[in-house]
Amino acid sequence: MGIMDRVKFDGLKSRDWLVYKYPNDKIVMGSQLIVNEGQVAVFVKGGQIYDLFYPGTYRLSTDNLPILSNVLNLFYGNKTPFSSEIYFINLATKLDMYWGTPDPIQIIDPKYFVKLRIRSYGQLALRLEDPLLFFKEIIVSLHKDDLVVYDKVQDYFKGMLITNIKTTLANKIIKEKISALDITAEIPSITDDLKVRIAEEFELYGFQLINFHIQSINFPDEDFDQINALLKDIAQMEMLGEHRYEKKRSLDIYEKAASNREGTDTFKTHLNKSLLNHSHTKQCPSCNESIPSTSKFCNLCGAKIEAKIICPTCNYENEEDSKFCSSCGTHLAKQVCECGNELHPVDRFCNNCGKEV
């Protein structure tokens, strides 16, 4: 290429550039170097950084590049051409840098014990504070390109950025037991923690983190549906009480089982018997806890329970050998239909064959 007497780079309209390598490597002493506002020029020869030039106009000479006088033979005075590289670096703040987790962070909600698939995205702003440090640390992997845009630098830091975001989010949720329903209120706190960690990483390469924002921490609707179902159950238990809630849950289970089968008479018979067996409870005389009425021993403390017959009409506890209720006179003896189905004392028709009792 030809010898250049004027070296300048006016930037790009998009302002998305970070490093621009001047295309001509034939520079002469006395050439004019113009560095615009928001730029710095790095003068390199033979892989060695000679000097940095901040905004202003310079005349390249041994006065501002004194080390060159030791390596150049000035056969033609100050017009001797020499091979060198000039890099322009953008010092302006880059505001519109967006980030996002490419795959979900899978953790267990510490309050509802539901597996969550967390995603997050946001925005950050960077400014190159130490161009010399940046040039030494990163330019080796980028110098083959004449133009380096911020997207390429962002790709370079992507692994570090996403790892820190995932780790901080997971630790915050698990250690501080933050539920999915409370995570939105914690975004400012999580943002502050992340900004400190990420800023330290960027400083190692000469960047200053100006701003860091989390725009959203979100979960799939399926994860929220599971939590909403749990909240509904909790609300029902609080309204009904634990004992009545357990009965309702038993009914729900049986209804679901019935809907998944053909609904034969045999299944209905077993359902009725099961509901009958669980429809009454009694109190353990030892620990005073509620236990099924048919229990011979307490399933909580192990105490032996005297056998009693519960009247299906008035719930009075009768002795084991009673044939009639001592309170209301209801017949307590077991009845069996001609079809072999055991009948409840208050049954008027057999629930297996339909015959009138």
UniProtKB/TrEMBL annotation:
Keyword Protease in record: yes
Keyword vocabulary terms for this entry: Hydrolase, Protease
Start and end residues of each DZANK-type domain: 311-354
Gene Ontology MF annotations: peptidase activity
CDD domains in the record: SPFH_like_u1 (cd03408)
UniProt lineage: Bacteria, Bacillati, Bacillota, Bacilli, Bacillales
Keyword Protease listed: yes
Chain ranges of the SPFH domain: 20-222
GO biological process, one term: proteolysis
Protein name (database record): Membrane protease subunit (Stomatin/prohibitin family)
